[in-house]
Design a protein that fits this description.
- It is a single chain.
- The chain starts with 11 loop residues before the first strand and ends with a strand.
- The strands form two sheets. The chain has a two-stranded antiparallel ribbon.
- It is built from five helices and four strands; from the N terminus they run ββαααααββ.
């Protein structure tokens, strides 16, 4: 049985495209990134479920990177977000001045926040690439979950091939 086939509480929702989200109106991607990290930690403890939990984490990461038909990582993949809700990213090049008026623009941000993870789709998997907190908020805690999950998946794949991890040989 896959993790995505298991019953879920009413506070969570697993969409057909395999993204698990918190039943909230926005910021689904950070919750999913952190769920992937937790699954990878659990996979190292509960070895009987290792394959299932690792596959679940991969599904979450792959969704964020573009398996959904678009990437939610700025500057990466297919159709990445162009309008992050981030004042500095919205500002024109120096020496032009920056004000909150740039935040109201519908144009793509002049400064690209390469690698930043946006908040993502709502609970119905709707996403609009517009400069607002609902879909395009960026924060360190959003991106940290994704990067930790990617590092965990990379470490897992290296263990499987017998690479040296943290000073010892495993695999």
């Amino acid at each position: 049985m896959l993790l995505t086939d298991m019953p879920v509480s009413n506070s969570s929702l697993i969409l057909q495209n395999k993204l698990i989200i918190k039943n909230c109106f926005h910021k689904s991607i950070p919750f999913s990134a952190n769920a992937a990290v937790i699954a990878l930690q659990a996979a190292s403890i509960f070895t009987d479920y290792r394959t299932m939990l690792t596959k679940f984490a991969q599904q979450q990461v792959h969704y964020m990177l573009g398996d959904s038909g678009r990437s939610y990582v700025i500057g990466f993949g297919v159709n990445p977000p162009q309008r992050a809700y981030h004042r500095g990213s919205s500002c024109p090049d120096v020496p032009k001045s920056c004000s909150w008026e740039q935040m109201k623009s519908t144009r793509a941000n002049p400064q690209v926040l390469f690698g930043a993870l946006v908040a993502g789709p709502d609970r119905l998997d709707n996403y609009e690439d517009r400069r607002d907190r609902r879909f395009n908020d960026v924060a360190v805690d959003h991106t940290a979950g994704l990067l930790t999950a990617v590092a965990g998946l990379k470490q897992d794949s290296q263990k499987a091939r017998g690479f040296r991890i943290l000073g010892s040989w495993r695999g």
